[in-house]
Amino acid sequence: MHRLRTTVARLRPIPASRSVQSLSHIRPVAVGGALGTFQPMRHLNAPVAAEPFLNGTSSNYVEEMYFSWLENPRSVHKSWDIFFRNANAGAPPGAAYQSPPPLGGLAQGLAHAKALVGAQPNVEKLVEDHLAVQSLIRAYQIRGHHVAQLDPLGIMASDLEPTPSDIITSNDKLGFYGLDESDLDQVFRLPTTTFIGGSESALPLREIIRRLEMAYCQHIGVEFMFINDLDQCQWIRQKFERPGVMHFTLEEKRTLLARMVRSTRFEEFLQRKWSSEKRFGLEGCESLIPALKTIIDKSSASGVESVIMGMPHRGRLNVLANVIRKELEQIFCQFDSKLEAADEGSGDVKYHLGTFHHRLNRVTDRNITLSLMANPSHLEAVDPVVQGKTKAEQFYCGDTEGKRVMALLLHGDAAFAGQGIVYETFHLSDLPSYTTHGTIHVVVNNQIGFTTDPRMARSSPYPTDVARVVNAPIFHVNADDPEAVMYVCNVAAEWRNTFHKDVVVDLVCYRRNGHNEMDEPMFTQPLMYKQIKKQKGVLQKYAEKLIAEGAVTRQEYEEEIAKYNKICEEAYARSKDEKILHIKHWLDSPWPGFFTSDGQPKSMNSPSTGLTKEELNHIGNIASSVPMEDFTIHGGLSRILKGRATMVSQRVCDWALGEYMAFGSLLKEGTHVRLSGQDVERGTFSHRHHVLHDQNVDKRICIPMNHISDNQAPYTVCNSSLSEYGVLGFELGFAMASPNALVLWEAQFGDFHNTAQCIIDQFISPGQAKWVRQNGIVLLLPHGMEGMGPEHSSARPERFLQMCNDDPDVFPKLSGEDFAVRQLYDCNWIVVNCSNPANYFHVLRRQILQPFRKPLIIFTPKSLLRHPEAKSSFDEMLPGTHFQRIIPETGVASASPEGVKRVVFCTGKVYYELTRERKNRGMEATVAITRVEQLSPFPFDLVKAETDRYPNADLVWCQEEHKNQGYYDYVKPRIRTTINHARPVWYAGRDPAAAPATGNKQAHLLELQRFLDTAFNLEAFAGQQ
Ligand SMILES: Cc1ncc(C[n+]2csc(CCOP(=O)(O)OP(=O)(O)O)c2C)c(N)n1
Ligand SMILES: [Mg+2]
């Protein structure tokens, strides 16, 4: 391990260091053979010595006071508190003691104390020495991990900062505390903040140091003293300090060896059979397998029934084989390049696929489900997805404390330190709507990232420092000591089970080969790899240890190896029979009952998404009320609710009410709805107000949506942390767990989605193609050119449209009534821009009522939220109504289509600008305006109907976005294909630009007017080709 610097401040043992400071006569002494080391002389005139009352014989009493004070300053009398405080703060001689306030009964006790302390001459040394030993113990607890032997290669020292001076690596270091060798046999009372004594309450200094070394400086380095909770610190101390904690039964050792055999021999088998295939082997960190198995066993024993795992490439196949217990032949046949793909979709490489396995845990005899999530190459991107899926599983089984479902995340050292998503995910760990009640993180710390050394890859001492932000304990362990690994994994699992908080196991190991099996590591890490070549394998080392101990015979060991080789060979033979590669076998999140047995949708119908007027009224009334007694809402909100009530009585909806109708009805029908994102509870634009706050009682809230009906599904609406990558990933994971939930993530403004680009590009857009796994997540992306400047304007529709998989050049076969549903079924995601609340309502409901799941991208409005014309009548939401992929012209122009000179196609808010302009110009009869509400999959059939309807019109695409942005590049070729290239498709919109919008309001309005002029100037394109 290489460390650039250590940020932890040096702990000063207060009285001793004080005495060092106040001592000018330092003389060189030779201690423990360290000749010439400067040692402070024992200083008997330390501040405490000058206190007149400290000259008695009552050492026990003073000690008692002192230790009580250390534990809890309030447990001793104020006068002692002041005294110890002053002494610790370095009060000058004689000044530490202050007279106590005259306090009745206590005064008596003090008088007694004074009488006692007045009698002992060397009490000041005693106090000083105990303070020194206390500091020494604390130093080991804080910094023992600095000197622990964590690196199997033993090369970490090359980059280490000097060993901390307060850890006793040689006797001369005792001087730091004002102690010397003669103190080694002196017996010291142990403070309550250590457990090294076991049943002893006092130990000789020599033994104290030995036990501290055993606890903190062997193959385990415990980093935990930054945790602010005393109980948690005490818990960890006793787990590592108690003498004899690292004891394993014969059975445990033999199981551990068998697991090491599997882990090691699996990689060897792959290497033998496919020596030129990349597999990102685990060699150098084989103890990862027993580590994970230990965590799973221990968690299973404490009631965990489902473990959801995410991990990168390193050792993934091994984890699939030996932890998840994926059939070996399924893994081996992935290496056969001649296998045909059986499923739709493009598939993925073998070290990205996920899987799901339900089995009996043999150690605990309990059933357990293990799933490994599929993931892209993008390191750590899967972290929040795992969290979201874990949360969802907890939610569906009512596991409010994480006792039954848990997340287990694996990391590489370089990625853990380097990728910001790790930090973003940690910050979700304790948020009420996002916590999974503790994740166990395991870092495969092979001290390298591809070809890059840690000293070039991070600025923190450890790759795990990021975990400190959430007070997660970090257990560093030398991965060449499988028993130490097993021990920390047991403790990690117990920690999670006890405190339900995150914990990190840092497996310090090495990478025996290059980054993959084809890479030559000597190009870049010659010395490290010279050392690695000399390194005996961990299995061999451990087997020799157990054979020497008599825990296992050589013959038994060899039989274990032969047994596993046979298992592999047999599976290999079976894998040869596989002719077809079923990606379906690699599903990580099956949705039982949702599809037919062969994975098809149960129907190809999309039922009406309308509601009865009674339902609309009922939900509308809930949306306009405060369904809780004695609940005072803000006056402004009362007005908003009153406005909603008026709308309901007038049978119209604005945007917020349309959304309410969609969510409320789905909840009533038993579908869970979860809306997450920054400030979604109120809504960025203050239109939603799904959470009402009592103006008189702190934190008292009311969520009317949860008062729709008695047996409704629960509604979750949650303001998120300020992270897009983390939160969108989380919601995607949540949506994976079940198809029976409407899961929505809303961006504050649409353009902020790009900090979550990786989730969009790697999971949402291609997820089904790569992993045959559908997902119905909804992205709400506020979008619109409203003069707000280059940011906050564009949700970048062009990017989403560019990733749609429908062919611009092929006019689809329209046969069959289910064309629209089939089109949805075939697409990778759905992109819509609704121009009215009814259509928004329908598309949200369609998302659940359709017989399959696809991601849905919705560009949502800002100013339209309050636009008087952007309202819908209840009539547009009644039974029989449905989402309109296109809203055709219904005005004067449509009545006499032959007279129409131009059809303007558009989408979203610009429709209202176009209709206003048309009215101003009196062109209702000559210009038809058609709204394309579903951009993708492109409604070829309906666009054709529109273009056929207006044979004498020219065709214009109008958008408020710049020409190189927005929708133009997507719709133009598709409209052209629709009309068989018979007519041009003209453009009216902003000119191409680098930024999405101008920062100048004046320029914004000018641009708007200019493109509206173009849209309504029937001569604008005359003479153009
Ligand atoms: C986000 C991202 N950036 C870059 C890469 C390319 N890459 C693949 S593995 C790797 C090194 C990873 O090092 P580490 O996390 O220590 O894992 P190891 O391979 O050492 O197990 C890199 C840079 C990637 N996969 N993902
Ligand atoms: Mg690494």
Net shape: globular
The largest sheet has its strands arranged as 5-12-13-11-10-6-9-8
Q: Give the helix/strand class.
A: alpha/beta
Question: What's the main sheet like?
Answer: 8 strands, mixed
Bound molecules: thiamine diphosphate, magnesium ion
Helix content range: 25-40%
Number of strands: 30
Mean residue pLDDT: 89
Helical segment count? 33
The amount of beta strand, in percent, is 5-15%
Rg:
35 Å
Taking the alpha carbons of the first and last residues, their distance comes to: 67 Å
Low-confidence stretches: 1-59, 100-107, 112-119
SSE order and pairing:
Blueprint: H1 14-21, E1 27-28, E2 38-39, H2 59-71, H3 78-88, H4 104-117, H5 123-147, E3 187-189, E4 202-204, H6 205-216, E5 220-223, H7 230-241, H8 250-273, H9 288-301, E6 306-310, H10 316-324, H11 328-332, E7 340-341, E8 355-361, E9 366-372, H12 382-396, E10 405-412, H13 413-418, H14 420-426, E11 439-445, H15 454-457, E12 474-478, H16 482-499, E13 503-508, H17 526-534, H18 538-549, H19 554-575, E14 580-581, H20 613-623, H21 635-650, E15 652-653, H22 655-668, E16 672-677, E17 692-693, E18 701-702, E19 715-719, H23 725-737, E20 741-746, H24 757-764, H25 767-771, E21 778-782, H26 797-802, H27 819-826, E22 830-832, H28 837-849, E23 856-860, E24 872-873, E25 886-887, H29 892-895, E26 902-906, H30 910-921, E27 927-932, E28 934-936, H31 940-949, E29 954-962, H32 968-978, E30 985-990, H33 1001-1016
Helix pairs in contact: 2-5, 5-6, 8-10, 8-18, 8-19, 9-10, 9-16, 12-23, 20-21, 20-22, 22-28, 23-24
Bound molecules: thiamine diphosphate and magnesium ion.
The site of thiamine diphosphate has 15 residues, from helix 13.
